[in-house]
Amino acid sequence: MSIAKVTEIISTSKKSFEDAIEDGIKRANKTLRNVTSVWVGDQNIKIKDGKEAEYRVRMKITFILDD
After folding, report:
1. Are 20 and 56 in contact (CB under 8 A)?
2. What is the Cα–Cα distance from 45 to 47, expressed in whole angstroms?
3. Beta-carbon count within 10 A of 61 CB
4. Residues forming beta bridges with residue 43, ordered by sequence position
């Protein structure tokens, strides 16, 4: 029997939402073991001087706890 835990993170990128998602997953895998899924909840863009300055995503990371 496996027990899973969900944690929420926010990841940012100056390039795109996709890049923010990839960076968030890479970072989560550095700290968490047994990552099994990611749910992207919110996406927003920080605007500076009328232009897109930063892409942000809020993600829920699911990982299996060690026995």
Report:
1. yes
2. 6
3. 21
4. 57
**C-alpha–C-alpha distance, residues 26 and 39, integer Å:** 14
Torsion-angle region of residue 11: left (phi > 0), alpha (psi -120 to 50) or beta? beta
Query: Residue 2 — pLDDT band, cuts 50, 70, 90?
Result: confident
pLDDT mean over 21-48: 96
Token reading at 61: 């990371």
Alpha-carbon dihedral of residues 60, 12, 18, 26, nearest 10 degrees? -60
pTM equals 0.87
At residue 67 the predicted structure's pLDDT band, cuts being 50, 70 and 90, is confident
Residue 32 tokens read as 């968490």
Contact 13, 20 (CB under 8 A): yes
Separation of alpha carbons 16 and 55, rounded Å: 6
